[in-house]
């Protein structure tokens, strides 16, 4: 118990404050529960205070379940107020000795101001160069509205960048599907070639593939708004990858079909 004062036990008997077992007065700990045997007096210092036994009136710890003198239970114990403790002197230490005179400091230790200084100067900001002031009415907070944009995509007569003037394999291999998603929607009419005779169908599809392969990038650049040339190139690289894979797959299926038919 942290708030008790441990002293040698005296008298004919000594009860354990934890379990109430009677022990030898010269014992060190309880023979039943092993709790330390202590004596508590009314003048024992305790920050939590003490309890008075309702039967014998002796002082006990606030956590004691049994009186250490008579062994009675501490149900109706009377609380004893803790003894006030003396507070140490908290006065700051004073230093003695001569002080060095500093004409540039005031008595509080802060820099002293010249008596010729105008107090209102502290409230003013730094001096502003009148020649450096700008006419706000002549400034455009949104920038120049006449600055030309480098992105000419999405315009009918827009200039074609150098990175766009290339052969388009996706437009050559899948002209009808490619055009729908690339800003050239009128290529969807090529689906109607399926209803034409085989010879005319071949001529129409071959001509459209060659034309779109050569001019597909230019038509796509002017037919749709792109974020940048890099965005345009990445989009068509992805479509080229899909077109090549699909063409290879269809060619492999046709080859297997021809071999199967010729073998029978």
TrEMBL record:
Signal peptide: none annotated. The chain crosses the membrane at residues 169-189, 195-214, 242-260. Pfam families: DZR. The keyword Magnesium does not apply. Keywords: Membrane, Transmembrane, Transmembrane helix. Residues 16-71 form the DZANK-type domain. Residues 80-126, 140-160 are annotated as: Disordered. It comes from the Bacteria. This is DZANK-type domain-containing protein. It comes from Candidatus Lucifugimonas marina.
